[in-house]
Amino acid sequence: MLVLSRTVGEIISIGDDIALHIPRTQRFPGEVRGSSPAEVSVHRAEVYQKIVERQDTASHPLPNP
Predict the structure, then answer these.
(1) Which intervals of the chain form a coiled coil (predicted)?
(2) E strand spans, the chain
(3) Which among 17, 21, 34, 61 has the fewest CB atoms less than 10 Å away?
């Protein structure tokens, strides 16, 4: 896992098209704001895991008894 430390106002760039912004916040935990092209899917890890599981189930259905 890559861990990056950033301060308020800094940006993390991923490739040419994705940027994660570290905004000023008084909430804990802090927040990260991102921007990416419309064709790039962005999900929280737990949501992405469910999508992968559903795709796996759809591509490998259980046999009928």
Answers:
(1) none
(2) 11-14, 18-21, 33-35
(3) 61
Q: How many Cβ atoms from other residues are within 10 Å of residue 65's Cβ?
A: 3
Amino acid in the structure at residue 12: I
**Whole-angstrom distance, CA of residue 30 vs CA of residue 5:** 12
Residue showing tokens 């559903």: 54
Pinpoint the alpha helices (H) of the chain. Answer: 45-59
pTM of the model: 0.56
Amino acid making up residue 43: H
- Is the peptide bond between 61 and the residue preceding it cis, with omega within 30 degrees of 0? no
